[in-house]
Design brief:
The protein is α/β, with parallel strands linked by helices. The protein is 48% helix and 15% strand. It has a five-stranded parallel beta sheet with strand order 2-1-3-4-5, with helices on both faces.
Length: 341
């Protein structure tokens, strides 16, 4: 995949949501059930939709939603569980293994995939399959991977208003990309500015629990995969009970840290106070503090406004380092070695 192709995928994120909204979701009556729990199982870029729907459900759902990143299923999964198996390629070995465990444990299963083995076995076993467009890197297909989950939740009555929230997300992202796409140069392009701040530094991403925590994780993983660079994240208020103490030594390393704080107007008032106090604690020790403000009204629009900025910033950071953001050779090597075994 070329640099230009990744730029094309970034630009097309709003259209991914629009495409799934147009396609819609239609589930058999057998999936109408009062589930005691919902598990989204997947890995990497295919799991990000699960993380988003988990935090989205915290605001709207009456049933717990768990994200599973393992070969096995939690022991509590049973006939009252709904398991959403998400694999963009349909061939992720951990997800295929988890699927078999979920089937053995009697769960209702819906597969979200572009094809592969997962689509084949789910159809053979009589489970629902939501087919999404293939051909992208999983991390570039977050709209295709998340929107079906939101529509499934709405279809089953687990959440309300998902379609409306997704439509707002499309509009917010279209507005944001006008200012950060590759045709907008430094310093007018905020994502390019952030990338230059992060270059030759160690980014630390701070979000807030139940609001921007998954956006912070998304920033981390996008910088990892696109810029091939180490990055770490944490969330308020938890980080005020441990990480905040760790800004004493070593001073030469601290001087290369760039703290990126993801802000949401809906953050708890005490979290807002914690952010301000924490900034003052670390300001003299680190290279830079950057704050990103969420845009939009709904949880989904605000989440994706923060995540989208990170997607583009990680893309530009790769360009700052003179590398192609698209390949993930280390992951490819790891998979090849596992295949030998």
């Amino acid at each position: 995949m070329t640099v230009e192709k990744m730029a094309e995928y970034l630009w097309g994120l709003p259209e991914q949501f629009a495409s799934i909204l147009e396609q819609g979701i239609s589930l058999p009556v057998k999936y109408q059930h009062n589930y005691s729990n919902i598990v989204v199982t997947g890995l990497g870029g295919s799991a990000i939709g699960g993380d988003i729907i988990r935090t989205y459900a915290l605001q709207k759902a009456q049933v717990p939603v768990i994200v599973n990143r393992d070969y096995d299923m939690p022991n509590f999964v049973n006939s009252d569980s709904l398991v959403l198996t998400v694999s963009y390629s349909g061939n992720t070995e951990e997800t295929l293994s988890a699927y078999h465990h979920a089937r053995t444990q009697g769960a209702a299963i819906i597969a979200v995939t572009s094809g592969g083995k997962l689509a084949d076995i789910a159809r053979q076993d009589g489970y629902g399959v939501v087919k999404i467009p293939g051909g992208l890197a999983p991390r570039a297909a977050t709209g295709y991977l998340f929107a079906p989950l939101a529509l499934i939740f709405e279809e089953l009555g687990i959440v309300k208003g998902a379609k409306t929230d997704l439509k707002e997300t499309v509009q917010v992202l279209k507005a944001i990309r006008e200012g950060i796409h590759p045709g907008v140069d430094f310093p007018e392009n905020q994502a390019r500015v952030i990338a230059r701040e992060m270059k030759d530094s160690l980014p630390i991403i701070w979000g807030s629990s139940a609001r921007s925590e998954t956006a912070a994780m998304r920033w981390k993983t996008q910088i990892n995969e696109n810029a091939k660079s180490p990055t770490y994240y944490n969330i308020f208020p938890e980080l005020n009970h441990n990480e905040i103490v760790g800004f004493g030594m070593p001073k030469d390393l601290l001087a290369r840290l760039v703290i990126i704080i993801l802000r949401d107007p809906a953050d708890h008032p005490q979290v807002k106070k914690r952010i301000e106090i924490s900034k003052e604690i670390v300001r003299s020790h680190v290279k830079k503090i950057v704050e990103i403000q969420a845009q939009g009204e709904s949880f989904l629009a605000k989440f994706y406004s923060l995540a989208y900025m990170g997607d583009y910033a990680s893309f530009y950071l790769a360009l700052e380092y003179g590398i192609n953001p698209s390949p993930v050779e280390t992951i490819d090597y790891l998979k090849a070695e596992l295949a030998k075994a």
